[in-house]
Amino acid sequence: MKLLGRQIERDQSGSVRLVPEEPEDIWHAYNLILKGDQLTAVTTRGVKSESATGSVSTNRVRLKLTVSIEDVFFDSYACALRINGRVVAENPHVSIGQYHTLDLELNQPFTLAKPEWDVISLQRVSDACDIARQADAAAVTMHEGLAVICLMTQHMTVVRQRIEVAIPRKSRGSTTNYDKGLQRFYEQVYEAIKRHIDFSVVKVVILGSPGFVREQFFAYMMAQAAKAEDRAIIENKAKFLLVHTSSGHKGALEEVMRDPQIRVRLADTKSAVEARAIDGFYQMLNSNPDRAFYGYDDVAKAAENGAIGTLMVTDELFRAADVPTRKKYIRLVEDSKASNAEVLVFSSMHVSGEQLNQLSGVAAILNFPLLIESDDECE
Predict the structure, then answer these.
(1) What are the residue ranges of CATH 2.30.30.870 in the chain?
(2) pLDDT above 50 (res 375)
């Protein structure tokens, strides 16, 4: 994401002008744009015109519109963002108050104005415009007949392709049909890896499966690469890391991220930091539950006592349509930072974020044990 301009007033109202340059930037925009904000962008609209003879024609006109946002829709597979709202600025072709839908596109500048820019939104802008971030990991989870190819950026785990191939069962005395089906499956996975993984950016490719499927596929892929003199695969052989998973589904990445080998290889990525934090929370919950809290009420009480060492919260909570709900989580983050706690905002598009959502979306590891009496106990 490129920052073209920023104008924030003392009361925290104001606007920023941004240009999304990569698909992940659309995800950042989705987290920034909320109901009630105003978005200005170039768009096209069908405009009716009447000739002198009375005939009416409709032409697509390119124009700049400002809308007050009412609905935001994000397509995670296509990384596309659609914003619907009412026009709030005068335009010769569109009357104020009319509805219009804006499609946010790559390399298309837009201006976002908010009545209040909170700390989470400002941090999101800083993260989005950080040129150091990269989609530096990829993962292929598979079992016979199923493979899922994912790209793991700092903020998202994006499924690039899901491959399903029917493989006939082995018949007694003959494996011809089974071998042909398996060959067809491996070929499709190999082509998908070449199509979706940029080895000039990716540091490691996790290849996970139950049984020996990963080893068999890896041997097939290297043999095909040698036969076709595919240097992109051959020269990056060392980037492939073969690990055991219980299945070939995307959910298997949860167990993959707990593997010590993976953590070493991904030590400098945000996804590994999140995985270590959530794993540390579960370990603390088992060994010392008075230092592992989850749920807003308990975590907020821990923050009041200055006990939080690490606060984990998902970005979904900051997209809440209810303003008071959104503000109470922002206040929780600010209070935790004020007591020098480490604050991690988990992406709901990551496996670790999905885990945290199962714990209500907010959890904390405390610096010291804290006993909180419930209302029932007080009575």
Answers:
(1) 2-128
(2) no
Contacts of 368 (CB under 8 A, 6+ apart): 291, 307
Note the Cα 349 to chain centre separation in Å: 3
Instruction: Could you please state the CATH topology (level 3) that the domain comprising 270-378 is classified under.
Output: 60s Ribosomal Protein L30; Chain: A; (3.30.1330)
> How distant is the alpha carbon of residue 131 from its chain centre?
17
CA distances from 67 to 14, 42, 43 (A): 15, 11, 11
For 290-310, write each residue's pLDDT tens digit: 999 999 999 999 999 999 999
* Confidence at 268, pLDDT banded by 50, 70, 90: low
Helix (H, G, I), strand (E, B) or coil at 265: helix
Amino acid in the structure at residue 29: A
- Residue written as tokens 């036969």? 227
Distance CA 261, CA 206 (A): 10
Strands 362-366 and 137-143, how do they pair? Answer: unpaired
Tell me how far apart the alpha carbons of residues 117 and 309 are, in angstroms, rounded to a whole number: 26
Tens of pLDDT, residue by residue over 56-103, are: 777 788 889 999 999 999 887 777 899 999 999 988 888 899 999 999
CATH 3.30.420.60 domain range(s) in the chain: 137-265
CATH of region 2-128: 2.30.30.870
What architecture is the 137-265 domain classified under in CATH? 2-Layer Sandwich (3.30)
Radius of gyration for the chain, computed over Cα atoms and rounded to the nearest angstrom: 25
